[in-house]
């Protein structure tokens, strides 16, 4: 079932909290992160966006890199931590 536009907007706002860990995520990268938080894979996100899966993989790789994550799962953990606990600073 396709995700409704208002759900993407809500989740994108939530995911933007995670962007405070590393400024510079584009709006599309924030939307991608929002769908990653729902467990969507590249093919499912590509269907939502109407683009090729390879394009989504680039967005996902950018999110991982910009959040300083080791992989997609780690990026989701970082985002969930930021959403639920707020950004964690080193040494705290």
Summarize the structure.
67% of the residues lie in helices and 0% in strands. By secondary structure, it is an all-alpha fold.
Notes on the protein architecture:
- The structure is a single chain.
- The chain is built from 5 helices and no strands.
- The model has no long low-confidence stretch (mean pLDDT 80).
- The chain is mainly α and 92 residues long.
- Helix 1 packs across helix 5, helix 2 crosses helix 4 and helix 3 crosses helix 4 (53-67).
User: How many distinct beta strands?
Assistant: 0
Mean pLDDT: 80
Main pleated sheet: none
Give the overall form: globular
* Uncertain spans: none
Protein topology:
Layout: H1 5-18, H2 27-37, H3 42-49, H4 53-67, H5 72-85
Helix pairs in contact: 1-2, 1-5, 2-4, 3-4, 4-5
